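Appendix B. Raw example, untouched.
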Amino acid sequence: MTKITPKDIVEHLKTHNPKLAIKNDRQSAMLLRESLKLIKEAIENTNDDVVRVAGLGSFRGKTIERDKDGVKKVIKRIFFRPAKKKSDKV
């Protein structure tokens, strides 16, 4: 499993695009954390719909009803499709 923390993302931004860097790393990490929390809430609150995140991709929520040992259980599945690279678009 690969784990990427908000701090890792801030460091990456500082090295690859200095114009985006905020001087205070802690504020940058907090901003990023809140952004990711917003995306997470949008994905969790979707009901059989698509959440598109620019530059990241789309998340499709689907509710599935399972019958296990005579008990029906509702399961929510999330499918992710990464965004295509800009050079791939025609």
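End of appendix B.
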